Amino acid sequence: MADQPKVFLYALSTCGHCRHAREFLDSNQVAYDYVYVDLATPEERNKILEDTKELNPRRAFPCLVIDDGAKVIVGFKEDEYKEALGL
User: What sign has the CA pseudo-torsion 45, 49, 52, 57?
Assistant: First the structure.
């Protein structure tokens, strides 16, 4: 199996699409890190939004970032996730 890409998910704790994205990643055994932006402290949230404004200018969630921004998928689009992750 090829090396798995570095995967990070920006999500909201109350977002159904974010939950589906995590369930998809988990069920496909994709190693990933994530943060619930809405549960971060105000300072952390501001830093996250500032750090990701070029990747996700609309600040929509979920936002899947692969290999430090080589590929970014905003929203949960199963077919795009599969293609980007080689599933």
Answer: positive
The predicted model scores a pTM of 0.92
Class of domain 7-85: alpha beta
d(CA 84, CA 7): 10
pLDDT at residue 14 above 80? yes
pLDDT digits (tens, 9 = 90+) for 51-65: 999 999 999 999 999
- Ramachandran area for residue 8 (φ above 0: left; ψ -120 to 50: alpha; else beta): beta
- Cα 20 to chain centroid, rounded: 11
